[in-house]
Amino acid sequence: MSNKGSFNYVPKVDTNELMATSNAGIAAIRAGLDEKRAFTKEAKLSCDACRKQETSASPLQACSRCRSVRYCSRACQTAHFKTAHKRACASFEEPPLCRAFNTKVVLPGCSYPEHPVFACGVSEGMGAWISAGGTIDCRLATLPGGIKGRPEKESATVGQMMAMIPGLTPGKYLSMTVLVQNRTPGKGRPMVVVGMGIVAFASPKGTPIFMEGKEPGERSTTVDYPHLGRVLGLAKVSVQLTHFNGKAIKNPATCPAVKDVAMSAVLLNLGDYAMFTIEFRAGGPRVALDFEALELLAHVIVPAIPYDPHAVGSYAQLLPRAAARDEVCEIQARIDQDAVDAWYRDYKIKGEEAYIASHYGEARANMIGSGNQALSEMMKAMMSNMRI
């Protein structure tokens, strides 16, 4: 008989096998990360016109408007702009080159690029791209805030501990990555993108399904669209500015471009771009995976307003005022359901491990499988101990 405070549940985990698998997995993942850095750097650093490689003595220069191409000289830039880049730059054909949002590089051993583009929208010289932002196992998050939102073990409630066990508790939160860039005409017009104003709208089919999971006190939006009827704007749980011009933002309050921390309002001059991670409550009786939620979405709207350095008030006030004056640039990015289906097809047909292997590599798939099993057993042991 166990004493109070001791474990009365013995995890059925072969620790030697687990350690061997984990160590091998970590080594393989680290090697993959090194290869990824080298592969990504090599893929970027060549002139888009003549393919000349960059050197430390002759660094390449980016197109100041789109930052999606690099040139070794003004002659190459001029020639390429006339023959190819003029249309691509204006039409937002490609997002800016950014390691945190790389839509082109397919790493060795994988079949897909790291960051799929599920939606792209353009309005008045402002553009937005939408990508997946969740975990690699495709489950909706059970706790908001991802890993940062997980409580410390000592302070976690029973419900929070249950939510951390993979697959035990149905997820609720859909995470998206949103990249927004200013390519306004001429010399460019300074614009402020308001992260807290970003809304993901359900399709007519998805609206009643998302409503099944509505929680008490949830603040959601409904809008009447011509020919569509009333559709639901999913309730936001969190908005976080993660990158500005490719650099990670750890503390938005220290970033000069951030004009309102609470509203995640970011000033974008010509060529500037910002990345946000946004979580929406999307889970319900019929929605537990990322693609189950994405398949029920119609579009995402990203608002931006002209920057007025003399404006008074928070952007919670300035955005509605701009809307009343019809000054809001609304970037509408329609969800490309074909792209969603293509990205998640391996999961639907072959299962979770096959999906992780084809998208993130065999080493990651093996480690995730072992890690999920170990975590599940340890959390069950902790729960059992709490009941003594």
UniProtKB/TrEMBL annotation:
Signal peptide: none annotated. PROSITE patterns: ZF_MYND_1 (PS01360), ZF_MYND_2 (PS50865). Residues 47-89 form the MYND-type domain. InterPro entries: Znf_MYND. Keywords: Metal-binding, Zinc, Zinc-finger. GO terms for molecular function: zinc ion binding. Pfam families: zf-MYND. This is MYND-type domain-containing protein. The lineage of its organism: Eukaryota, Fungi, Dikarya, Basidiomycota, Agaricomycotina.
